[in-house]
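Dear Dr. H.,

I hope your travels went smoothly. While you were away I took the liberty of generating a structure for the chain from your last submission, since the lab meeting agenda had it listed for discussion. I wanted you to have the full record in hand beforehand rather than looking at slides cold. The sequence, exactly as received, is reproduced here:
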Amino acid sequence: MARITTRRPVEDEEEDLVEDVAEEDDEVEERVSAPAVSDRRRRRQLKRGEVVAEADEPAAPQPIRKDRPTPSQRAEVVKSSNFIVRFFQDIREYFQEVRAELSKVTWLSREDTLRLTYIVLVVTAISAIFLGTVSYIFGLLTQALAGGSSILAGAVTILLIVVVAGAWLFRDSLFSRFE
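The corresponding predicted structure, in token form, is as follows:
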């Protein structure tokens, strides 16, 4: 049997070992700091003639397959092969899911609901009155223009068109303080 001997490294050899370890650490940091390049990007860069840095290490390891399906969060419902039974099972499942979703909803208080309902009704009434009035005025102007007797009706119609179109075009600057 051969005798194993060890010897202490000399101080110069220790410094060389420390420098070698430091160089290896720098190489590892350079590899880590460089972004990973996908195969598609590498092929595109090669096609363009760009210099592509080859990776020393393989790509990130893929997750280990379990070779079995992962169980779902919900319990599996056995579906019947009968069309009618399956139809009623689907309807029952639909209503169960609707009930579950509605239980997650945060409902408004009765006071908030009434207040918002009144606001919607008032805005709807005001909008209906405004649009009805505008429709009535334009109807009168159209009748006056169709009669051909009134130059004043034509001037008022043109003026209304210019005012409405101008308000529409400059609505951002006119109504910016209301936002």
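Two observations you may find useful: The first helix runs from residue 11 to 33. The mean pLDDT is 76.

With kind regards,
E. W.
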